[in-house]
Amino acid sequence: MRTPSSSINPGIGRLAPSRVVRAIAVQPQWRVRDFRSRESFRVWMRAQLEHSRPHLAPDRPNLVVLTELNGLPLLLRGARMAQRAPTLDLALGLTIIKHGPATLYCAMRQRVSLPRALQLVLAPRLAADYLSVSRDLAREYGVYLLAGTAPLPHFVLQGSRLVVQGSQVYNQAVLISPEGELIGLADKVHLTTGEGPSGLDLSPGKLADLRVFATPAGELGIATSLDAFREDVITHLDAQGASVLLQPDANAGPWTGMEQEPPTGRNQPEAWLDSAWAAVQRARNIRYAVNPMVVGNLFDVAFDGQSAIVAKASQAPQLRSYVMTEPRAGFLALQPWVTQGTPEELRRAGLELAPRSGAVRENRYRTAVLAADLPLSAPIKSPLPLRPFEEAVNGYLLGRAALRQDPAVQTLGALWRLLGVGVLLTGARLVARRRKRGLVLTLLGASITVLGWF
Fold this sequence. Notes:
This is Putative amidohydrolase. This protein is α/β, with parallel strands linked by helices. The chain has 2 domains: 5-405, 4-Layer Sandwich (Nitrilase/N-carbamoyl-D-aminoacid amidohydrolase); 414-454. 34% of the residues lie in helices and 21% in strands. Strands 1, 2, 3, 4, 5, 6, 15 and 16 form an 8-stranded mixed sheet that branches. A 6-stranded mixed sheet has the order 7-8-9-10-13-14, covered by helices on one side. A two-stranded antiparallel ribbon has the order 11-12.
């Protein structure tokens, strides 16, 4: 992560606060190399907290919000061939092949697609990577941390071990306290096309399961990406007394292009006003929203946007807005885009940022840390007890339970690699005897070996 730009706004308005919260939104850039190992992931995540450090307040709760699906590329950990793939789809395909027998076994046993099966197979490892890094950072920096989101199932406790419950995998947000304990989980309800059956095949969460989490950092409602655009989610969270809306985001597409989810036909920044900004202006209880957005070209997919911290218009009277939209009140902090210009110039700049554009501007996005003080009234909600699947995750965070791979999955993975070596050696022997099929077996064995080991 390059040294980011930063912005801070005191958030002073008409509200007579009984508490003030420092809210921080981090706009990082991601690259495939950040997910090659747990340690590289830790370095990338820690850099985001380190860049937030100058904005942390010593005398009030600090709330740091990270971006959507920042745990997704952990699926590629250890899959060296997949990490070198030219496209995201091919990278996922090569990862499925690397874990072929285990993925196929899970797909048949659970009756799910291969992408879903891969995520179920790797869930214990991915969860251990994601949760341990997020817990450690929340503790180290003493912050309330919305770690972002990751493709995770629900876990249940069996003795001192977490096991996957069912066959569902959610785009799941993880909220952790400064002590490293779980505050709560939130499953995204409204999925994009890329998250649906034709893509990652994630499972939609249930609207009724979305909760507001009462914390010293505010009554926090989580509306991941598209959820923040949907009236049913905002109404549901507002009715529960949410005071701060958290909208982690990963917008897959040029920021100055056209909107990608129905209804279509508008410029993307114009459509974005229907999420956090509109939710805060219209809601009764939601006073603020924190919307961090990840940027960067991941394989052949561009991710871009302008992170923002939003308030009621009366509390943020300065006129400003996203590019390609008219200035307006309601932004406490807003990350400028990479350039200014006419709509045509901005649209061209967005294409130049994209993968394989060949332009000087390719992948030269802007990173940022935004901060604002949020005056809040006295707490009106008591914390809710953790649900069973949250208790399981909290047990792991506190070191009371372990995340371990299914022994059957481990065995199948080992057999896959041994099969490749066996076929390779058999083919080599046949080649030595000048048998024609020996070359075919040698090539097949070499392919299985390379894919299984690399």
